[in-house]
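look at this fold:
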Amino acid sequence: MLSEPKVSITTSSAGSIPRATEHKVLMVGQMTSDGTATAGELNESLALNNEAALFGTRSMLTEMIQNFRKVNKETRLDVIPLADDSTEEAVAATSTITFEGTASAAGTFTLSVGSKNEHTYTLAIANEDTHLNAADALKALIDADTTAQFTAASTTGVVTLTMANKGPEGNLTGILISGSTAGLTATITTFANGATNPALTSAFDVVADEVYQTVIAPYSYEISFLTDFLSDRWNVENNELSGVGIMCTTDSLADLKAAVASINEQTFVLVGNKEVAETTYYGGAILEYPANIAAQTGAVRSLRLTSSAKISDYVVSSGSALDKIGGPALSTLPYFNTPMPYLPLVPTGKGFTMAEAAELEDAYVSVIDNNRAGNSIILGPMVTTYATDSAGNTDTVFKYLNSVDATMIAASFMFNSLKQDYAQSRLTDGDLIDGRAIANTGKITASFVKYFNELSGEDYVIAQAGEDALQYFKTNLTVTVDTEAGQVTATMILPIVSQVREFVVPVSITFSVLGA
């Protein structure tokens, strides 16, 4: 592949829309053997409603895609399907529901597995139904759910659920049972014993130089699966490949903090779901597969950053008509308070407290939870795991995903603009010649000033606007040329837009204004 002139944009925390590369998403997950796709191959521009045929009706990957498409049907989605590991060590996670006794009255049990919204079963119990009747009836309900990521077997009153895909991701599957029937009891166990992921070492080899701004994968593949791939794409020479990986897992407050304590990557976001471990409820406070939560989170991000996408359902700010349409300018609009309508509400008392959510934000873990009214589930502040600069100093510039989004788009904009504006150009230390493609320090400096003005305009809202910001940019812009080498070096500081994250309002109280 040819790519001239060479352009290398490097970004650091220094203290017209088509020019930004359009957003693309890459998803990785496991297929099942009934899918027609070839494991390990890149499936580009996935068509709507084609996932079950390609990757298997009950597969993890199919449901991840369906969750992504609930939110976002507009952004290009590419997919790498992986086959389950074929060795004896590869095991599918299992759970059991054990019925005991005989009903002495009619009653109902409600079972949710993996996804409360999609896989909830209401089991009607008649008077004198036995544990055998109950187990067989529940199996029949699950058999009828042909999109579930698990299958059911019934033996002597015990229903065993087995994940369709092998591997440890199945251990994160939630399960909740409620209801009661006189004389008949139901006991559940957590999903466990899933082991051995598919081969991951060369999974991204098929991507080559394709740019993906959002990459989604199951958490059990390990954080390094994404960070090893994406960190090498940040600030690469003569290309713009930067992207952000998103995973989600269910765990305790302490273990979530520990999971990212040593990551320090602006290219990675971990969404934390609080673990619940009770006799009738095992799994995440948000009863949804963690990989599906990651898929929906990535769908919201990519929808916001897709030009002309309709995003009014995901923007709550009033009086901001321009912010109801997706595009580069949404990079600086806060993520927090974004509705997540396809996730189930967190049951009262099961989620993180406000203090715990703030603690996780400080520890570089993102949280999704109910709003204050408890009638909607929303994004909290979206944070990356970037904590310190290369010298080990605390650095908050890339802590928030908004700042990373803005930086990536600004770099992409300048990269594409320089490629376009200087596709064929002479370079001189002298004067320009009218009617000839030729550049000198003055012309190139003027180009960067033009780029700044576009980045500070309404189409981008990335750079700070106004004369003071423009003069600051000009003061810190240095352009030098080496005509012998044909090299232009430009150093600059880009003042970007931030977000309103906190109000501090001291108020003094008085009972009298007389004599004031």
